[in-house]
Amino acid sequence: MDREVRKIKQGLSLKFSELVYNGFWHSPECEFLRQCIERSQEAVLGTVRLSVFKGQVYILGRESPRSLYNEELV
């Protein structure tokens, strides 16, 4: 995702969580937001390993064949 898509997605995510919290899961606007968020995630592929303990979530690792991270450049 580029910077602009990420900024737009963050705003849509806030609106989406508000709609879901207020019980509008099946509303047309919530369906539209789900489609927008889904479209922004089409290129996302990979695995994230998590640890969950006493209400906390910790990221243990992540990997993706499409990762932009390059160990040789670090």
UniProtKB/TrEMBL annotation:
One of its GO terms (cellular component) is cytoplasm. It comes from the Eukaryota. Its EC number is 6.3.4.5. One of its GO terms (molecular function) is ATP binding. Gene3D superfamilies: Argininosuccinate synthetase, chain A, domain 2 (3.90.1260.10). The keyword ATP-binding applies. GO terms for biological process: argininosuccinate metabolic process; L-arginine biosynthetic process; urea cycle. It holds the Pfam family Arginosuc_syn_C. InterPro entries: Arginosuc_syn_C, Arginosuc_synth, AS_cat/multimer_dom_body. The keyword ATP-binding applies. Pathway: Amino-acid biosynthesis; L-arginine biosynthesis; L-arginine from L-ornithine and carbamoyl phosphate: step 2/3. SUPFAM superfamilies: Argininosuccinate synthetase, C-terminal domain. Keywords: Amino-acid biosynthesis, Arginine biosynthesis, ATP-binding, Ligase, Nucleotide-binding. Residues 1-74 form the Arginosuccinate synthase C-terminal domain. PANTHER family: ARGININOSUCCINATE SYNTHASE (PTHR11587:SF2). This is argininosuccinate synthase. It comes from Todus mexicanus.
